[in-house]
Structures are given as C-alpha cells and as structure tokens.
Amino acid sequence: MINPKVEAALNEQIKKEEHSARLYLSMAIWCEVNGYPGAATFLYDHTDEESMHQMKFVHYLNDRGGKATLSELEQPESNYKSLLDVFKQVMQHEEYITASINDLYGLTVEEKDYTTGNFLQWYITEQIEEESLMRTILDKISLVGNDKAGMFHIDKELEAMVKSKRTATAVE
Ligand code: FEO
Fold first, then answer.
1. Closest ligand 1 atom to the C-alpha of 93?
2. What's the predicted TM-score (pTM) here?
3. How far apart are CA 87 and CA 93, in angstroms?
4. Mean pLDDT over residues 71-86, rounded?
5. Is residue 76 part of a domain?
6. What is the per-residue pLDDT across 4-42, written as a single tens digit (0 to 9) for each?
7. Structure confidence by residue, pLDDT tens digits, 43-69
C-alpha cells in the first residue's frame, strides 16, 4: 500500500498535469485564432504531452495500490498579449512544475518511499528537457522582437519541430 502522504501529493500532481494540459490547450487556441498556426500546432502537441504526464501518474498510483483522484480545475487564462507573452507564461509554468516535482521527490525521501522516488526520476529528466526547450523558444521570440518576418519564421520553425518529433517517434 502506498504511503497516504505520498498518495495525496501524487494526486495533487495529477491535478497540476491536467491543468498544464488545459493551459496549453488554451494557449494553442489563442495562437490559432491570432495568426500563429505553427505555435498552435506546437502547443496542441504539448497538450497531449501533459495528458501523457498525467496518465503516467494515474497508472503508477493505481498500480501501487492507491487511487488516482480527479479534482476541480480553475479556468486557464484565455487572453494573451503576444506570442512572447504566451511563451513567457509557458516558461514560468514549467519552472513551477519543476519545483513541484522536486518537492514531491523531497517528500518521497522524507517518507522513505524510494520506489516512488525512483519513478519520479523520469519526470526530473523530462523537466530538464522541457525547460531547456521552452527557454530556447523564448529566447528566439525575444530576439526577433516585433519583426514580422522573424516571427513568421519562428512560427514555421515551431511547426517543423512537431513534424520532426513525429517522424522520430514513427521511426523508433
Ligand atoms: Fe508535465 Fe510540461 O510538465
């Protein structure tokens, strides 16, 4: 049976991952209706990735004899000032999720639940990758400023990132 404190914290993380999916979905919608189809494709794809993060927690918790629980979620922001604003918020959100995963890991050490600590290693690595990817995108957007041609190029690049990821997954 899983430690009840760890179970509660995992359920809290399940909520955060579900919220992440909805936040990125909301951002994708904003991008799609504001002339950034590539950024929309990228964020729709990232929505799926967050749902996958949530599901991994759900299965793990249930497999360990606990019970995954869904919570009420707050409505994600639907208005953004610019593409720069969107990715600034993505970055902030990923940093928040990283801190949350680290706290969760800390709890597993405190509670001597090394199995869950081991399971969390995947998320710790994933957060390094997510932050690095988002930081790269944010830097590029910051660099082009208000240059429309530059922004158009970045939007195309975001679309290409998703296509190359799908090709790589298909080859695996
Ligand atoms: Fe589930 Fe983007 O972290």
1. 2
2. 0.95
3. 10
4. 97
5. no
6. 999 999 999 999 999 999 999 999 999 999 999 999 999
7. 999 999 999 999 999 999 999 999 999
Please provide the distance, in angstroms rounded to a whole number, between the alpha carbons at the two ends of the chain.
35
- Ligand 1, CB cutoff 6 Å, lining residues: 17, 20, 50, 53, 94, 97, 130
C-alpha 79: how far from chain center: 19
CA 17 to ligand 1: nearest atom: 1
> Is residue 171 over pLDDT 80?
no
Residue 12, class by beta-carbon neighbours within 10 Å (0-12 exposed, 13-18 middle, 19+ buried)?
middle
CATH number at residue 116: 1.20.1260.10
Identify the residue whose tokens are 């530059």.
Answer: 150
How many independent structural domains does the chain possess? 1
Decide if 146 is inside a domain.
yes
97 CA distance to ligand 1 centroid (A)? 6
